[in-house]
Amino acid sequence: MAVDKNIKVLLVIGDSDLLIHQVQVEWTTKNINIILYLQYVKELCNKFIKIEFKYIHRIQNEFANALATLSSMIQHPNKNYIDPIEIEVRDQHMYCFHVDEEADDKPWYYYIKRFLETREYLDNATRGKKRALKGLANHVFHNEEFLYMRIPNLGLLRCVDVTEATRLLKEIQARTCGPHMNGFTLAKKILRAEYFWMTMESDSIRYI
Q1: Distance between CA atoms of 98 and 95, rounded to whole angstroms?
Q2: CATH topology of domain 2-73
Q3: CATH 1.10.340 residue ranges in the chain?
Q4: What mean pLDDT is reported for the chain?
Q5: 8 A C-beta contact, residue 47 and residue 3
Q6: Rounded to an integer, what distance in angstroms lies between the CA atom of residue 80 and that of residue 66?
Q7: Beta 195-196 vs 155-159: how paired, if at all?
Q8: Helix H or strand E encompassing 23
Q9: Per CATH, is 109-207 categorized as 1.10.340?
C-alpha cells in the first residue's frame, strides 16, 4: 500500500522481535521461507528514500493485531471496495466483563495449582471446564511456592491473590503513575513489574 501511494519515507513498527532484527540483518536467518520473505522485503526497501524498522512489545500493538485478525476473518465479495469500519473505544476490554470473581474465598489460581499438583479434576467438572482448566495450566509454571503465568514477550509473571493485588494497585499507582495515569497504563505498569491476576485490567480501571 505504501508503494502504491508513492510514500518515500516509512516507519515500520512490528511486535515480532525476531523478524525486526532479521530484516535489519542483526540476526542470522536459516529458515528458507523466512529468507525468501526477507529478500522480498529488501526489494521493497529500495523503493523508499528512507525506511526504518522499530520493534514494540505485543501488548503495545493490540489495536494493529485486532485489525489484522479482523481482516483475516472477513472475505469481502468486492475486492475494489471495503466497507468503512466504525470503532468504539471502551473503557475495558470485552473479556474483562466475562471473568468471574471467586466466591469461595480461594485465590483465582487455586484450581490451576491443584490440577498441576495432582493432575486431577473436580468430581463435578464438565468436559468444557476440564478443557479450560488444562488450557490455563499449559500456560502456567509452578515452582512449589508460587505460580507464574507465561505471557508472550513478557516472560513469567507471578500470579497473586486478591489481597496482594490490592496492595500492588495502591503501591504501583502511588509510586510510578501520578495523578494523570489511566487504568490501562496502571495495568501495564503491573505487568512490567512481573505480576498477574485475571481481572487486572478491570481492577486497575475501577481503582483509577
Answers
A1: 5
A2: Nucleotidyltransferase; domain 5 (3.30.420)
A3: 109-207
A4: 79
A5: yes
A6: 22
A7: parallel
A8: helix 17-23
A9: yes
User: Which residue is listed with cell 468486492?
Assistant: 78
Distance CA(161)–CA(174), nearest Å, equals 20
pLDDT digits (tens, 9 = 90+) for 92-121: 554 443 334 555 778 888 999 999 999 899
The CA distance from 157 to 59, in Å, is 14
DSSP string, 26-58: SS----HHHHHHHHHHHHHHTT-SEEEEEE--G
| Relative orientation angle of helices 183-192 and 200-207, to the nearest 10 degrees | 130
Cβ-based neighbours of 138, under 8 Å, separated by 6 or more: none
Rounded Cα–Cα distance for residues 22 and 34 (Å): 9
Q: What is the pTM of this model?
A: 0.46
